[in-house]
Design a protein that fits this description.
The chain has about 170 residues and is an alpha+beta fold. It has one domain. The chain is about 10% helix and about 25% strand. It has three helices and ten strands; from the N terminus they run H-H-H-E-E-E-E-E-E-E-E-E-E. The longest helix is centred in the first third of the chain and has 12 residues. The mean pLDDT is about 90. It binds zinc ion. Zinc ion binds next to loops.
């Protein structure tokens, strides 16, 4: 069935409304001031990254160790119970060889493709992982299940961000 826009209650704006400044446009650089709160789970997670550690949350009912950590278990429908350190190693759950940038523009000719991957972290429950990137590996050598380890920024350069881990690289041997 085709949906009628009128039935959906959609409101259409005219191009003139944008020009007259009746609509918010990023081109006009609005002075938006806001603060971002990471919350207790991600806040602690990022603090630990600054120290070169990865921390997860455990639910004592289903016994899952969750990464990234969360304060609520969506399966048991109750708060999670404790903090658990996990390793900075893991395995590739899935990956992509990506020839476009975040804004969908094509990467420069000759540049290496981006290698986003979901890494299942050792010590966390099966299937629990974080989205990051792979490094020090040729794209054609990447395999699902490949063992990897975090390549960290130098301690003095870390700022409590997921980018404190530069990338995950293959574990040799
Ligand atoms: Zn649970």
């Amino acid at each position: 069935m085709e949906l009628d826009k009128k039935e959906l209650g959609a409101t259409h704006y005219k191009e003139s409304a944008l020009k007259e400044g009746k609509l918010l446009s990023l081109a006009k650089q609005p002075k938006l001031q806001y603060a971002w709160d990471n919350g207790p789970a991600i806040g602690r997670y990022l603090e630990e990254l600054k120290e070169g550690r990865i921390i997860a949350r455990k639910c004592n009912k289903c016994r899952r160790i969750m990464i990234p950590p969360r304060m609520f278990c969506e399966l048991c429908w109750r708060p999670t119970d404790e903090w658990v350190y996990v390793k900075d190693t893991g395995k590739v759950n899935t990956f992509s060889i990506c020839y476009v940038n975040w804004d969908a523009s094509r990467i420069k000719k000759g540049d290496k493709p981006h290698l986003p991957a979901v890494i299942e972290i050792d010590g966390a429950s099966e299937g629990m992982g974080i989205l990051h990137v792979l490094g020090e590996v040729e794209p054609e050598k990447i395999k699902i299940g490949m063992k990897v380890k975090a390549a960290w920024k130098k301690p003095e350069e870390r700022e409590g961000a997921i980018t404190d881990i530069l990338y995950f690289k293959p574990v040799r041997g």
